[in-house]
Amino acid sequence: MKKTEILILVLIAVSIAVLVSFMGNLTTYETIASAKQKEGKSVKLVVKMKPNSIEYDAVKNPNFLKFSAVDTLGNVVDVIYHDAKPTDMEKSERIVLNGKMQGGQFECKSILLKCPSKYKDDLDAASKNIEKS
Q1: What residues make up the domain containing 80?
Q2: Is 12 part of any domain?
Q3: How many domains does the chain have?
Q4: Is there a domain that residue 99 lies in?
Q5: Does 20 fall in a domain?
Q6: What whole-number distance in Å separates Cα of residue 22 and Cα of residue 29?
């Protein structure tokens, strides 16, 4: 074999090894039920916060937040987050949680809030105006 052919084969092997190593770190969006089946593995949940379920005391422990989350199928899970409570979390329409299931609870590493649409009222008004025309 020529040196260039050997070099190409080595580059292909290295690129395959890199791709395989990244495959282990991928996370997918899951439901609460499927996340419970993958206990200990990193997953992302898209949920709504259950009303009046927040347990947070900024004076006692500012790095502990607990709340109940509901997915689109109606499954409920308690979420533990070891950091400060995100601002306006109660107003968020949806929440993306990144973490893993541990002992029946979701141990959250990061929280991404999906804010309510600021154009929702404008769309309602626009549809009423169209109906009047």
Answers
A1: 27-118
A2: no
A3: 1
A4: yes
A5: no
A6: 17
Q: Is the dihedral of CA 29, 96, 81, 24 positive or negative?
A: positive
- Tell me which residue of 39, 59, 115, 57 sits closest to 67, measured CA to CA: 57
Question: Are the C-beta atoms of 77 and 30 separated by less than 8 Å?
Answer: no
- pLDDT tens, 49-108? 998 899 999 899 999 999 999 998 999 999 999 998 888 888 888 999 999 999 889 999
Give the type of residue at 31. T
Residue 56 is assigned to a structural domain of this protein: yes
**Which CATH number does the domain housing residue 79 bear?**
2.40.50.140
Contacts with 24 (C-beta within 8 Å, 6 or more apart), sequence order: none
Amino acid at 127: S
84: which DSSP letter?
P
Measured CA to CA, the distance from residue 4 to residue 55 in angstroms comes to 63
Phi, psi of 2 (to 5 degrees): -80, 160
> Is this prediction's pTM over 0.85?
no
- How far apart are the C-alpha atoms of 111 and 79, rounded to whole Å? 11
